[in-house]
Amino acid sequence: MRTPFIAGNWKLNKTIGESQSFAREFAPLVQDVEGVQVALFPVFTAISALKTALGDSKVEVGGQDFYWKASGAYTGEVSLPLLEDAGASVVLLGHSERRGRFGVPEPDLEGEAGRVFGDSDHSVNKKLLAALCSSLTPIVCVGEILTERENGHTDAVVENQIVMALDGVDASQIARVVFAYEPVWAIGTGKTCEADEANRVCGVVRATVVAKFGLDAGDAVRIQYGGSVKPESARELLAMEHIDGALVGGASLKADSFAAIVRAAV
Ligand code: PEP
């Protein structure tokens, strides 16, 4: 049995005070929920305060990204030991909004300057290998952009991202890795991938893990779906064979809607 995992990615939202208010409202709403792992990903500056505000709640706190080196001359970066120090126990990597937006420039910048965030399959791999040497649980995000889907390349794109991310990962480490299948065209757009199709691609993720590490590893690995998950769509998605949780953006910003998604996993 795989423990469902519901994660809320707040992106660049919520001050320290707003994060603390959320914790006070949210923790009681999920206090009686058993058997579901729940994590919130605030901005870096709010990690420590959010962790403290959650008190003895089992809700975990995570980092939205990190650099794979522990310390040094890397201005503007944050590392795994610093996230651990702030109270994080989980970390996101390879989110589409960090993967150089898949080469899509920021609308208010031009040309190469528009690629403000630079994750690639190679840097995602470096980050995963580093995370597996820390105490943090890594959530590796994968997913296709719209043109890749329209050209029938979804499965190949997702498979390739996973194979690249897992390069050098040992069989003894794979059970710690969580994947999030996030079709990029469904993130923040209100467009949810149909549950059957989301399940099918999560099945591709599982099959890719099976191909590399065998049946038991594939059976144990947890796979979230992400992309405009709402309380209304969560139950159907979470009932699917290969979907073991959700990575939630917009609907995690309100305590009641995120709590409803957590409850849909029970
Ligand atoms: C996300 O941030 O990973 C995400 C899926 O966002 P949203 O739920 O808003 O689409």
Helical percent range?
25-40%
Q: Name the helix and strand elements from N-terminus to C-terminus, one letter apiece.
A: EHEHEHEHEHHEHHEHEH
Mean pLDDT: 93
Strands in their spatial order, largest beta sheet = 1-2-3-4-5-6-7-8
How can the largest sheet be summarized? 8 strands, parallel, barrel
Shape from CA axes?
globular
User: What separation lies between the terminal Cα atoms?
Assistant: 13 Å
Give the strand content.
5-15%
Number of helices: 10
Count of strand segments: 8
Low-pLDDT segments: none
User: How much is the radius of gyration in Å?
Assistant: 17 Å
What ligands does this structure carry?
phosphoenolpyruvate
Q: What structural category arises from helix and sheet content?
A: alpha/beta
Key traits:
single chain, binds phosphoenolpyruvate, 8-stranded parallel beta barrel, alpha/beta
Describe this structure as you would to a colleague.
It is a single chain. The chain is α/β, with parallel strands linked by helices and 266 residues long. 38% of the residues lie in helices and 14% in strands. It contains ten helices and eight strands. The chain has an eight-stranded parallel barrel with strand order 1-2-3-4-5-6-7-8, surrounded by six helices. Strand 1 (5-9), helix 1 and strand 2 form a beta-alpha-beta unit. It is globular, with a radius of gyration of 17 Å. It starts with a strand and ends with a helix. Bound molecules: phosphoenolpyruvate. Residues 9, 11, 182, 187-188, 226-229, 247-251 line the site of phosphoenolpyruvate.
